[in-house]
Design brief:
The chain is α+β, with helices and mostly antiparallel strands and 267 residues long. The chain has one domain: Creatinase/methionine aminopeptidase superfamily (Creatine Amidinohydrolase, Alpha-Beta Complex). Strands 8-7-9-14-15 form a five-stranded antiparallel beta sheet, with helices on both faces. Strand 16 and strand 17 form a beta hairpin. Helix 1 runs antiparallel to helix 2 and helix 3 runs antiparallel to helix 4. The longest helix has 24 residues. The chain starts with 6 loop residues before the first helix and ends with a strand. The C terminus is likely disordered.
């Protein structure tokens, strides 16, 4: 069932979103060559706890998962697209890092992700390629957000995201996309990252969506799963980027809820 949120409920989601944004900003600030992923996970955990919220990901176990998720964040490095478990790996110069994080505040959820580069890769061509990948992922998300207006259709959002990614020659992770969000992290509807305009659900004020393009540098859509049952990697070994925002459809257009303040969006 698709749930339309009230203004009071969206305000609580806005609070959850700002906490999520603060956790992501803290992780990005702490990320440096030699820092372990589990240390970054602790940074996010502290921000969420200090804000009086709950970690949305910790203990989450969808039907296909072999075990409950063990982290507060998903940290995916280089060819890992999403769901990377933050373990003992130490960041190296030039790593492309995607961090996904969520918080629940007074029963309502926020979910966001960002991608960034740690230091400089020994080969500057790799850094330039990663910068272009991240910029296009951000542009695809921005296009999807702009399309999330009342009266538009879900296919308009999907088409806007996919058009940007495909025009740049990137792949889109198969069978993955955004989702509704509210009391639970994953709610109806599913939001594809590619689709036909003018098709699908009509967007109404009060609908809240997590939009999250996942772009693959090699141009393929295929991925493989690690033995841990969570981490998903590009099948061709190329790098990937993942950027996400929680977005409310309002009478005046889309509002990004996962930002530190109304004038400073997490990118």
């Amino acid at each position: 069932m698709i749930e339309i949120k009230t203004a009071d409920e969206i305000e609580l989601m806005r609070r959850a979103g700002r906490i999520t944004a603060a956790a992501l900003a803290a992780v990005r600030d702490a990320a440096a060559v030699g820092v372990r992923l589990d240390a970054l996970d602790e940074v996010a955990a502290d921000v969420i706890a200090d804000a009086g919220a709950e970690a949305l990901f910790l203990g989450y176990q969808p039907g296909a998962a072999p075990t409950p998720y063990p982290g507060v964040t998903c940290i995916s490095v280089n060819d890992a697209v999403v769901h990377g478990i933050p373990g003992r790996y130490r960041l190296a110069a030039g790593d492309l890092v995607s961090v996904d994080c969520g918080a629940r505040y007074r029963g309502w959820s926020g979910d966001a992700a960002l991608s960034f580069i740690v230091g400089e890769h020994p080969d500057p061509r790799v850094t330039r390629s990663d910068e272009a990948l991240i910029a296009t992922t951000r542009a695809a998300l921005d296009a999807g957000i702009a399309a999330a207006r009342p009266g538009a259709r879900l296919g308009d959002v999907a088409h806007a995201i996919g058009r940007v990614a495909r025009a740049a020659g990137y792949g889109l992770m198969a069978n993955h996309g955004g989702h509704g969000i509210g009391r639970e992290m994953h709610e109806a509807p599913h939001v594809p990252n590619e689709g036909r305009p003018g098709r699908g659900l009509v967007l109404r004020p009060g609908l809240v969506l997590a939009l999250e393009p996942m772009l693959i540098a090699g141009g393929t859509d295929a991925y493989v799963e690690d033995p841990d049952g969570w981490t998903l990697r590009t099948a061709d070994g190329s790098r990937a980027a993942h950027i996400e925002h929680t977005v409310a459809v309002t009478e005046h257009g889309p509002e990004v809820l996962t930002q530190l303040a109304r004038t400073r969006a997490m990118r």
